[in-house]
């Protein structure tokens, strides 16, 4: 397959996945993705399938329990089931595949607290962190898009607020954080290294938290209302950041790892 044909195939696949996500959520989306060939994509082209599917989950604001599939596949298990997942603060949760009540933070996600489980295999943890990183980047881009459009539409003192330097700086800082996180994810994709995946997830979480803060400021009061979609993306970012280690926890873990090694390994060829 030629590079142009490959790019065209991925574009068509992305359109199919986006269309599927536009009409389903939760267990329905789980079934729709399976019918679309998600598990085959995960087996045959994970480096393309994971960024595509999880990035679009973030951009569309929908959800499905496919993180389980990524981690089960990475650990040599059979996708389609569930497994206990470490959560921030030493908690453990399970992302159910059925329709159950959600968490206090995000009432749409079927995540339930479970007793402490055995440690997750390193390869599964690395793959899961990469997948969550792409989801966080997608969510960040959705928040930035909402804030940017508001800045272009909102008029104050006879001027669009997109002309105000403070607003431009917040949007620019959000974009820089997102682009940096995405570059880190690309560097960690392919041959997943535990430290590289840890740092990529931490960078994606930091970008999402930065985006939530700046985009809320740009949107002002409208961003707090139930009618505006921003609050859903903010809640989603908080939940995803906590899964498999929060930004703060992962940063500390990275520091301990580097101190133990006594040097900083090269994680990307520049």
From TrEMBL:
<keyword id="KW-0285">Flavoprotein</keyword>
<protein>
    <submittedName>
        <fullName>Acyl-CoA dehydrogenase</fullName>
    </submittedName>
</protein>
<feature type="domain" description="Acyl-CoA dehydrogenase/oxidase C-terminal">
    <location>
        <begin position="123"/>
        <end position="246"/>
    </location>
</feature>
<dbReference type="Pfam" id="PF00441">
    <property type="entry name" value="Acyl-CoA_dh_1"/>
</dbReference>
<dbReference type="InterPro" id="IPR036250">
    <property type="entry name" value="AcylCo_DH-like_C"/>
</dbReference>
<keyword id="KW-0560">Oxidoreductase</keyword>
<keyword id="KW-0274">FAD</keyword>
<dbReference type="GO" id="GO:0003995">
    <property type="term" value="F:acyl-CoA dehydrogenase activity"/>
</dbReference>
<dbReference type="InterPro" id="IPR009075">
    <property type="entry name" value="AcylCo_DH/oxidase_C"/>
</dbReference>
């Amino acid at each position: 397959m030629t590079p142009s044909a490959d790019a065209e195939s991925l574009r068509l696949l992305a359109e199919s996945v986006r269309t599927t996500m536009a009409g389903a959520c939760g267990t329905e989306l789980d079934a729709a993705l399976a019918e679309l060939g998600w598990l085959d994509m995960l087996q045959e082209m994970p480096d393309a399938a994971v960024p595509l599917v999880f990035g679009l989950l973030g951009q569309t604001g929908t959800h499905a329990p496919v993180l389980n599939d990524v981690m089960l596949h990475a650990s040599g298990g059979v996708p389609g089931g569930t497994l206990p997942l470490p959560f921030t603060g030493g908690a453990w949760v399970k992302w159910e595949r059925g329709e159950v009540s959600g968490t206090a933070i995000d009432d749409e996600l079927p995540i339930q607290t479970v007793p402490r489980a055995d440690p997750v295999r390193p390869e599964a943890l690395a793959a899961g962190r990469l997948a969550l990183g792409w989801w966080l980047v997608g969510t960040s881009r959705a928040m930035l898009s909402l804030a940017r459009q508001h800045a272009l539409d909102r008029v104050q003192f006879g001027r669009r607020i997109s002309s105000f330097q403070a607003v431009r700086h917040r949007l620019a800082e959000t974009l820089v954080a997102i682009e940096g996180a995405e570059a880190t994810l690309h560097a960690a994709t392919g041959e997943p290294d535990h430290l590289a995946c840890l740092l990529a997830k931490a960078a994606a979480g930091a970008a999402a938290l930065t985006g939530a803060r700046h985009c809320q400021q740009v949107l002002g009061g409208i961003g707090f209302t139930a009618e505006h979609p921003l609050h859903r993306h903010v809640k989603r970012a908080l939940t995803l950041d906590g899964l498999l280690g929060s930004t703060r926890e992962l940063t500390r873990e990275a520091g301990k790892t580097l101190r133990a090694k006594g040097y900083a390994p090269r994680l990307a060829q520049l």
